[in-house]
Design a protein that fits this description.
The complex is a heterodimer. By secondary structure, chain A is an alpha/beta fold. Helix content of chain A is about 40%, strand content about 10%. By secondary structure, chain B is an alpha/beta fold. Helices cover about 40% and strands about 20% of the residues of chain B. Chain B is built from 11 helices and 14 strands. Classes of the chains: A alpha/beta, B alpha/beta.
C-alpha cells in the first residue's frame, strides 16, 4: 500500500530560510539585547562543545557512544530558555545540548565523557547519562522512550505539590513508536498533567528514515489527537519560532494543567553516534543543504546581526570564547582523576551510603 | 496484640504510612474504587481520597515509570502490581530506571519507590500469572527485594519499605493473604536485611523465604514428630539486602542445611545462599547442602499437578532426610 504523502510541516519550513516570522512575537519582543546575546552565546557554546568532543573522541579519550547535538541547538536553546523555577526537563541520550542550556559546566560535561570522577555523574553515567537535579535536569536516559514515563511522573509530582510548573520530556523521532511513550501520552492526557512531550525530529531514527519506520499519515505530533492532546509543529532551525510555539505549550501546562505534544523539525549533521559512519542512509548533499541554508546558529546570528544586536566583532568574540572554554574543558577532563575501585560500589543505595542507628536497611547488600 | 490477616497487616502498614507522610501515594490498577483486586487496599480511597489513592489504567510501564519519576521529586509512591508477573511489561522502568538512577547520577537522585503485589504460583492460573521474580530482580544492584511470610513481617517490612530511600520491591503471596497472626498495634518496622529464626532446632537448618517458610515449618513439625529430628527454620524475609550472618550462625550450629524456595532451581535465590554457605561455612558442614525448588518447568495449570510442582511438606521432609542421612 502506498504511504499517504500528506506531511504536516510548519509553514515556515515550506519556504526558503530567511528572517524569522516570529521575531516580533511577544515572547521574543520581550527579550532584551543582553538576553538575545546570552541566548546566542548558549547556542554557540553547545556547537563548540560538541565539535571539541569530536576531537577528544578521535583522540580515543571518550569511550562508548557519543551522540552529538550539532544542528539541533535551537531546540534545546529555544525551549529551555522559557523555563522557570518549577519547570523540569528530562531527555534521551542526545543530552549534551540540554545540559549546557540548564547551566551545567563544560568541565563537568567533558569530564563525564572521559569517565572522570569530576564528571557530572562522577564518571558513572557517561555521555548518555548526564544529571543535574539541582538545575531541574533529570537526565540523560539511554533507552529510547524510557524517559517519557519518568517525565510524566515529574509533571505528576509538580501537580501533586500544587506548584505552577511543568515537565518537558524530549525524545527523538524514533521514540514515537515505543510503547512507553504512548503509555505516557495516555497518562498525561488522562490525568491532565502539566507535561510537554518534545519530539526532536531530526529525520532519522539511527539509520532508518521515518518513511521506513513510522506509519504516519500526517506528522508525528498528530498522534496526540488520539489522546485528546494539543499539538504543534515547529521549525527547529528558527530559535524564535521554537520559543514562540513552545511558550504556548508552557502556558497551557501552567495555566490549564494540560499536556502538549510538540514536534520540532531539526537536523543532525553527524551520524546517529560517532560509531555511525553515516554513509548508507542519506546523501552528503542533504547534509550540505541543511548546513548551508538552515543552520540554526547561523540563522540566529544573521537575525541578530540584522537587528544590530550582534556585530561581526562581538559574534567572533563569543565564538572564540566558546572554543576556548571547550579547550579548557578538554584539558580539565584530561587532567582529572579516574574514579577509584572503591568508588565502583558507592552510590548504589542511599541507605547504604548513609547508614545510621535508625536505618531501615541492614545486612549484606553488596555481594562478593 | 491483635490477631489479623496478612492482607490486613499490609493494609494497616499502608494506612499508617499514608497518615504519617503526606507524600505517600498508593497507586495501581483497581486499588481505589474497586478496593483492590485482592482487597489489600480496601477502604483506603474512602479514608484518604482520590489524591492519595489513585486508580491507574492497565499500563504498567506507564504508571510504574510515572511513579519512579514522581519519586525522584520526593513523592513516595506505593505502587501495586496486580501480579508481579505483570512487572515484565514494565521491566525497563523497574530495572533500568529505578535501579540505576542513583548510580548513574553519581548519587544525585534517589528513588524512594515501593512496588508491591503478589508473586506466587499455586493458584491454578497458568504460567503467565505465576512468576516469582525475586531472584531476577534481586540480581540487580540498586534494587531491594523482600518476601514476607507472616502478617507481622508483612506489616513491618512494608512500613520499612515505604520509609526506605531506595526502590524496594515487596513480593506478597495471594495464598497467604488470609493467614492470621499476631501483629502489634503500636508502630514498628522490620528492617530490611534481617532474617528471622521462625523455629529453633539443632539438627538441620532450613533456609526459606515467602510461603516456602510456611511449608518448611509444616515439614519441621513432621520431621520432629515422625523422625525425631530437631529442625531450625530461618526465614530470610529480605532477599536483598540479605542477612548472611543469621544463615551462617544457624548452619554453624546445626552443621546441615536444606534450602527451600518456590522459584525454579536455575539461578534461584538459593543458588546464591548455597554459594555463601559453602564459601563461609564449608568446614562446619557435615553433609552437602540440600535444595528444594519448584519443578523446573513453566507453571502448570492443572491444580493437582501444580501442587506437586511447588515445594510441599512431603518433598521437604524427603529432602531433609537425605541431608540428614
Amino acid at each position: 500500500m502506498a504511504k499517504p504523502a500528506v506531511l504536516t510541516h510548519p509553514e515556515s519550513l515550506k519556504k526558503p530560510a530567511g528572517p524569522s516570522d516570529f521575531a516580533k512575537h511577544p515572547i521574543n519582543a520581550a527579550l532584551s539585547k543582553a538576553d538575545k546575546v546570552a541566548l546566542y552565546t548558549k547556542m554557540a557554546r553547545i556547537r563548540h562543545f560538541e565539535q571539541r568532543c569530536i576531537r577528544t573522541y578521535q583522540q580515543g579519550k571518550i569511550g562508548g557512544f557519543l551522540h552529538l547535538y550539532v544542528g539541533q541547538e535551537a531546540v534545546a536553546a529555544g525551549t529551555i530558555s522559557l523555563l522557570g523555577k518549577h519547570d523540569h526537563i528530562i531527555t534521551g541520550y542526545r543530552d549534551h545540548g540540554h545540559a549546557l542550556m540548564v547551566g551545567m559546566s563544560m568541565n563537568e560535561c567533558m569530564a563525564e565523557l572521559t569517565g572522570k570522577v569530576t564528571g557530572c555523574s562522577q564518571g558513572k553515567g557517561g555521555s548518555m547519562h548526564y544529571f543535574a537535579p539541582d538545575k531541574n535536569y533529570w537526565g540523560g536516559h539511554g533507552i529510547v522512550g524510557g524517559q517519557a514515563p519518568l517525565g510524566t511522573g515529574l509533571a505528576y509530582a509538580v501537580k501533586y505539590k500544587g506548584l505552577k510548573g511543568c515537565c518537558l520530556a524530549y525524545m527523538g523521532d524514533g521514540a514515537v513508536n515505543q510503547g512507553a511513550v504512548h503509555e505516557a501520552y495516555n497518562l498525561a492526557a488522562l490525568w491532565d498533567l502539566p507535561m510537554i512531550f518534545v519530539i526532536e525530529n531530526n529525520g532519522y531514527s539511527m539509520g532508518t528514515s521515518q518513511e521506513r519506520s513510522t506509519a504516519h499519515p500526517g506528522c508525528l505530533a498528530k498522534r496526540a489527537e488520539g489522546y485528546g492532546m494539543a499539538w504543534d509543529v515547529i521549525n527547529g532551525h528558527d530559535v524564535y519560532e521554537v520559543r514562540a510555539k513552545t511558550d504556548a505549550a508552557v502556558k497551557r501546562a501552567h495555566e490549564e494543567s494540560k499536556p502538549t505534544v510538540l514536534e520540532i523539525f531539526t537536523y543532525r549533521y553527524f551520524g546517529h553516534s560517532m560509531a555511525d559512519p553515516d554513509k548508507t542512509y542519506r546523501d552528503k548533499d542533504e547534509i550540505k543543504e541543511y548546513r548551508e541554508k538552515k543552520d540554526p546558529v547561523l540563522l540566529f546570528e544573521n537575525e541578530l546581526l540584522a537587528e544590530g544586536v550582534l556585530t561581526p566583532a562581538t559574534r567572533d568574540a563569543i565564538n572564540e570564547a566558546a572554543m576556548a572554554e571547550a579547550d579548557v574543558a578538554a584539558t580539565f577532563a584530561e587532567e582529572s582523576p579516574d574514579p577509584t575501585v572503591a568508588d565502583i560500589t558507592k552510590h548504589i543505595y542511599w541507605e547504604e551510603d548513609n547508614r545510621g542507628p535508625n536505618s531501615t536497611s541492614r545486612g549484606t547488600i553488596i555481594f562478593e | 496484640m491483635a490477631v489479623i490477616t496478612y492482607r490486613e497487616a499490609l493494609r494497616a502498614a499502608m494506612r499508617e504510612e499514608l497518615q504519617r507522610d503526606e507524600n505517600v501515594v498508593v497507586m495501581g490498577e483497581e486499588v481505589a474504587q474497586f478496593n483492590g483486586a485482592y482487597k489489600v487496599t480496601e477502604g483506603l480511597l474512602k479514608e484518604f481520597g482520590p489524591k492519595r489513592v489513585v486508580d491507574t489504567p492497565i499500563s504498567e510501564a506507564g504508571f510504574i515509570g510515572l511513579g519512579i519519576g514522581a519519586s525522584m521529586l520526593g513523592i513516595r509512591p506505593v505502587m501495586e502490581l496486580m501480579f508481579w508477573s505483570f512487572s515484565y511489561v514494565a521491566f525497563d522502568q523497574i530495572v533500568n530506571n529505578a535501579g540505576n538512577i542513583r548510580y548513574m547520577s553519581g548519587g544525585l537522585i534517589n528513588c524512594p519507590i515501593v512496588i508491591r503485589g503478589p508473586a506466587n504460583g499455586g493458584t491454578n492460573v497458568g504460567a503467565t500469572h505465576s512468576h516469582t521474580p525475586e531472584a531476577i530482580l534481586a540480581s540487580h544492584p540498586g534494587i531491594k527485594v523482600v518476601c514476607p511470610a507472616t502478617p507481622y513481617d508483612a506489616k513491618g517490612l512494608m512500613k520499612a519499605a515505604i520509609r526506605d530511600n531506595d526502590p524496594v520491591y515487596v513480593m506478597e503471596n495471594t495464598i497467604l493473604y488470609n493467614d492470621k497472626g499476631e501483629v502489634p498495634e503500636e508502630d514498628y518496622i522490620v528492617p530490611l536485611g534481617v532474617a528471622d529464626v521462625k523455629r529453633v532446632g539443632t539438627d538441620l537448618t532450613i533456609v526459606a523465604h515467602g510461603r516456602a517458610v510456611i511449608t518448611s515449618l509444616k515439614a519441621a513439625e513432621i520431621l520432629e514428630k515422625e523422625h525425631g529430628v530437631s529442625v531450625e527454620v530461618v526465614d530470610l524475609r529480605s532477599i536483598r539486602p540479605l542477612d548472611e550472618e543469621t544463615i551462617l550462625a544457624s548452619v554453624r550450629k546445626t552443621h546441615r542445611a536444606l534450602l527451600v524456595e518456590e522459584n525454579k532451581p536455575f539461578c534461584g535465590v538459593d543458588a546464591q545462599v548455597a554459594y555463601i554457605i559453602q564459601a563461609k561455612a564449608f568446614d562446619d558442614l557435615d553433609a552437602p547442602i540440600g535444595r528444594v525448588s519448584s519443578i523446573d518447568a513453566p507453571q502448570i495449570y492443572c491444580k493437582r499437578m501444580e501442587d506437586q510442582q511447588l515445594p510441599h511438606a512431603a518433598r521437604v521432609v524427603e529432602a531433609a532426610l537425605k541431608v540428614l542421612a
